[in-house]
Each structure stands twice: as structure tokens, then as C-alpha cells.
Amino acid sequence: MPVTLEKKLVVAISSRALFDFEEENRIFDPADPKPYMQLQLDKLAIPAKPGIAFPLVQKLLAFNNSDERRVEVVMLSRNDPVSALRIFHSAQAAGLHLERGVFTQGRAPFKYLRALGAHLFLSANADDVRDALALGFPAARVLTNSMAAGTNFPNEVRIAFDGDAVLFSDEAERVYQAEGLAAFQDNETSKAAQPLSDGPFKPLLTALHQLQRQADASGMRIRTALVTARSAPAHERAIRTLMNWNIAVDEAMFLGGLEKGPFLREFEPDFFFDDQTGHVNSAARHVPAGHVSSGVSNPST
User: 274 an active-site residue?
Assistant: First the structure.
């Protein structure tokens, strides 16, 4: 039987998202990468400190056991092959079972997502994230200055999603930005029974839902939350869309424009995804956060 990643949750991640390479990154110069490469080689025996996405990866890999690997985490990095030595050494020292990686020495790595069949791409590089989203892959720019994930739920992968332009398309958000809140509420009330189109992160939510159904032997669980600026009556269309997908989230927060950060602090996600920089920056003060550069709020995409 050929080796395949089919039927697995596949997460592609950059080195700066998984490990704290901020000090090393300060000396990186695309025109002359040799000093950076030498620094990584000099530190080969020094394991890198965990980065913002490290706890999420650690928990996801805990779904695997000796009989079955349900999750595959693949390094997908602009780093060079020499620096890959330190990355894999650091992973081994931290007890992370990472086997695969693609290192492109400064070139954009996102094109390999298709070959991997990735359900999520986490990177600190905004351009790579935008390009990955344009190809149809769930992707987020990791805010490397985010607050570290909490430790109160060691046996749960906890992920929070914004709704419009993340789980759902931005069709309703376009109405809001063009015509205001009253028009948005009228539009969503009149279309309450009409499911929203898929957003860029629906494939990840679907994959997590499938992983949860297989999680019996590992002892790990998944807990998801919808954290949205919507309020009643616009909440109904969001709930009915999830029902139409036959996917349930564990918690839903309809905040009506309230700041999301304090609510996320109480939920304690291992990661939160939002398309609006204001919400992401608020969240990052409390939890690990990633910016999804999609939809009308990110016109450069």
C-alpha cells in the first residue's frame, strides 16, 4: 500500500509559528541568508523555545497512538535545509513526533499545500497566508506576540472561530459594510432559513468534526466555539447554516459588537481565527490568535 495522508487531519506549519525564532529572525536578510543559517547551525544543540502554535500542535498530535495516526503535522517553511536540522532537533527534544517537512530557502512554500491536502496552514508570513487562502486552503497569519495558550484543559483541543468571512462567506458582512447594521439585520432576518455559503475555514471545522468522532482511544477531545459580532435576530442564520452542514459547535457567543478578547480569555482556546485585525489584536492580548486575510475586510486579497 502506498503511503498517503488521506483520512488524516493535516496541519502545515511554519517554523516561526511552531517555535520562537523571533531572535533569529531579526538577523534574517533575504539578500544574504548566510548569517541566519550560521546562527541556526551554531544553535543546533540548543532546542528552540515553543512558539505560539506549539500547544495546539502538541495537543493535536496526542490524538495519535501506536496503532493509528489520525493527525499529521508537516513543517512548511521558507527556512533552508540547514536550518531544518535545528527545527527537527527542537521538535525531537520537545517530544513532538514530526516526520515530514518542506523547506524552500526563501521561496514561497504555500504551493505544496495541494500535495499535502492540508486542512490548515499556520504561518507568520502574511503573503504566504494570503496566497494559501486564494488557493482555497484554510490559512492564518499567526500573531507571534499573542498570549500563550492556557493549561487548564490538557485533554481538549479548544478552537474558536469567527463566523462571517471565516466559517461562513463574507456575503452578509458585505451588506453590513455597504449599508449599515439595520440593513444587515433585515437581510439576515429575511434569509434566516437560507444557509450562508462556505467560508475559508469550513474545511477545518469539518475535519475537526470528523477527528472528534474518531477520538475514542486517545482520550483527547475537541471543543469548538463560534465567537461572532452577530446578535439576535441575525444569530439564527448562523445557527441554521451549521445545522445545514450537520456540524455542531460546542459554544456560541453572539456578542453584538462587544470586544471579543475578554470572552476568549474565559473560553481559553488553543487558537482563535478572525478576519478583522481589530478582533485579532484584541484576542491576542488574551489567547493565541491568527488573522484570516479573507473577505471584504481585507481588500488587498
Answer: no
